[in-house]
Specification:
Layout: H1 2-26, H2 49-53, E1 72-82, E2 85-87, E3 92-100, E4 116-127, E5 131-140, E6 144-148, E7 153-155, E8 162-170, E9 174-188, E10 198-212, H3 219-237, H4 241-262
Parallel strand pairs: 2-10
Antiparallel strand pairs: 1-3, 1-4, 3-8, 5-7, 5-9, 6-8, 9-10
């Protein structure tokens, strides 16, 4: 009887062990999941901290810039005409011209016979963005009366000449130094947004004029004295001028008497 119970207990123990083994096999075995590591950014040489932490931004599109207009320069010729010698009291003309440089050879020609003439080439800015140019000529000479016969300021237009004329007259005999100068005055155009005009010097020259007098007389007085001397010389140069005039007068009276007789007048 005891042996029989022993076998029953052994069978129960073996059954319990089998059940425990089955239960262990049925449960899933959880595998350990590795913890992901944070990626460390690699900093390139020259890169700043803000560049690493923030995304790269796209630069704005800049439109191409329009080139600013440049001043226009024109080759010009300064032509002078003046009397090298004058008589006191006489009037004469002095001319100054700013003309576009002609092609090829150019020979200055005086407008008045006996005048001196000369020419000098210079570069001239004829246009300036936002401005209007006016060519200006001045003349100064101590003791020499000068009256400008044309506008002192004239519009400076590309390809167009500018001319100034003065009537000059010396007060007394001597050597006069005439100073001529050219400049351009730039005036802002309306709506240009520019303020204030400015002047640009172009050219300057000194001319020499000799004034002469006859015995301290003016030109007209010297002409009258000369004409009187010529008449006096003519009269005194004819031998027996007085007798010759008396003879001519006598013959004229005789001819007149004969004419009256022929006509019936007594």
């Amino acid at each position: 009887m005891r042996q029989h119970n022993f076998y029953i207990l052994l069978a129960l123990a073996m059954l319990a062990l089998a059940l425990v083994a089955c239960a262990s096999a049925a449960e899933p075995v959880e595998e350990a999941t590795p913890t992901p590591e944070l990626a460390t950014p690699v900093e390139e040489p020259g890169a700043t901290e803000s560049a690493v932490r923030t995304p790269t931004s796209t630069p704005p599109v800049v439109p191409p810039s329009t080139p600013e207009p440049t001043p226009e320069i024109e080759e010009r010729l300064v032509e002078m005409e003046w009397p090298a010698a004058m008589r006191v009291g006489d009037n004469d003309v002095l001319r100054l011209s700013l003309i576009p440089a002609p092609d090829g050879s150019y020979v200055p020609t005086p407008e008045i016979g006996g005048h001196e003439v000369g020419a000098t080439p210079i570069p001239v800015t004829v246009t300036r963005p936002g401005y209007t140019g006016y060519a200006r000529a001045t003349l100064s000479a101590s003791g020499l009366d000068a009256e400008l016969a044309s506008p002192e300021e004239q519009p400076l237009i590309p390809g167009q000449p500018n001319t100034w004329r003065w009537t000059v007259s010396p007060d007394e005999a001597g050597t006069y130094r005439v100073v001529l100068s050219l400049s351009v005055r730039w005036v802002p155009e309306e709506g240009s947004g520019l303020s204030g005009s400015f002047e640009e010097a172009l050219w300057e020259r000194i001319l020499t004029v000799e004034a002469r007098s006859t015995f301290g007389l003016s030109g007209i007085q010297a002409d009258l004295v000369g004409a009187g001397g010529s008449v006096l010389g003519l009269v005194t140069g004819v031998p027996f001028a007085e007798k010759g005039l008396e003879m001519l007068l006598k013959r004229f009276k005789q001819w007149r008497g004969k004419t009256q007789k022929v006509g019936g007048v007594k």
